[in-house]
# Entry
Amino acid sequence: MRIERINNGIVIDHIAAGKGIEILKLFPTEILRTKIDYASYIDSPRMGMKDIIKIENVDVNHEWLMKVALLAPDLTISVIRDAKVVEKINPTLPELIEGIIKCRNPKCVTVRETYLPSLFRVARMENGKLKQQCQFCEHIFYS
Amino acid sequence: MTESFDFKGRHIIDTEDLSTAEILHLVKTADDIQAMGDKALEIAKGKILATLFWEPSTRTRLSFEAAMFKLGGNVLGFSEASTTSSAKGETLADTIKTVALYADIIAMRNPLEGSAMAAARYSDRPIINGGDGAHLHPTQTLGDIYTLYKERGTLDGLKIGFLGDLLFGRTIHTLVRLLSRFDVEMHFFSPEGLNIPEYVRSSLQAKGAVFSESEDMNGQLAELDVLYVTRIQKERFFSEEEYLRKKNSYRVDRELLEKAKSDILILHPLPRNEEISQDVDDLPNAGYFRQAAYGMEMRMALISKCLGLM
Ligand SMILES: [Zn+2]
# Structure
């Protein structure tokens, strides 16, 4: 499958093969109304196989990016303007993430007192899983 | 010692937020306050402690309130959720912000895990966590550490046994985590299925703590300096039959103590069910009522320090 060049927008590259579909699910609806190219399991010299997503006429939104980084920490994001890469973003996983992950412990204060920002300490484990610890109730979740 | 420990304005949410030096300083402060006798009544004169208890815990609340009265301060608060504005839908944040206008320091218990940390975000007055659900109960733990110092003089070299339900016993988990910073040996005795949780075990392993686990105390009882007993609740067992069969193995009485060191110290966070026979109460080994008093004295130290009065 051949992915077309875009003039304006972003390219999310080096997504672990097969993970692209999960990233697509994170897209806010306004992004889903624009043109998206998505290719899965394409050859990559660096990764063996990878997924790639191109989105036309969209700006990078910080919170959304962080969600993407949580799913696929190795990806790169290029911002394209007038057919040129003007910015490369490596969404590195911050140690503390505020307001994106929801605590799944029903007894956690953040579940009942919903105005509280969620606060998670995250770490990538050796097996590739993401360890997420709620800083309020200290429950640990893996994804 | 010239090191100063300024706790003024600080929240006490989790014992893990305290350095070992700070914990030893709190122990010393508790001692210093007791040595002041009636002069301690001047320490918090004119100050107000709010005890906000969204779930009833008479024992902890009375301990906080007695601590404040013994420092010469005043107390206000509520002792169950149904009498509070939260029953009318007020948020935790709003309750805390309002109470912080009335009180100089707040001790709280709330069934939601992480509630004390949440409260601290909305309070410019010190918050002392009096228990946030099944999560943390730092003042109990600090009181237990103070008890060990008062009763034994030092923690170094102590062999401490923990008996009973070690899975659901929140006080055990925080105490064990804190004790693993000291040079102690820990031995866990619990019915199958009620062992210490995996996260406690792995944290002990990570810290290189010396510990063992078994179903009964045979063989090890004679070595112990301290036996910390926890409540055994019927509903934790698979069946009534199993409970009846096992409960006696986790019960301390005079007969059992014959096999222990003559000066073994028996502790229990109280209230107790049948885990400690009443015939033990009169022995000098029975430390559990003194433990409650030390808990209150530690709370006096915490209130004084967090208000910047000591
Ligand atoms: Zn949580």
Summary: Chain A touches chain B through 16 residues (CB under 8 Å). The beta strands of chain A are 9-16, 36-44, 48-56, 76-81, 84-89, 96-98, 119-124, 130-134, 140-142. The first strand of chain A starts at residue 9 and ends at 16.
